[in-house]
Write a structure and sequence with these properties.
Elements lengths: L16 H37 L12
Length: 65
């Protein structure tokens, strides 16, 4: 699995509300389809990322908490 990259998003500021709604609906449909096809795998990937991001506690730690 590749590392997660956060890219800066630059959205056009000249869209009409109708254009913005069309893009939003397209993204919502795509999201629903991805979830339908890959829901369990997406959940596992989230768990894996959280496990990697969460520091493990160690008995050797000098921190009191």
């Amino acid at each position: 699995m590749t590392t997660r990259r956060v890219a800066a998003s630059v959205l056009p500021t000249h869209w009409t509300p109708e254009q913005a709604l069309a893009v939003f609906e397209c993204l919502q449909t795509l999201s629903e389809q991805l979830w339908g096809l890959y829901g369990p795998q997406i959940q596992q990937a989230w768990r894996d990322q959280l496990a990697c991001d969460t520091p493990t506690s160690s008995a050797d730690s000098s921190e009191p908490f």
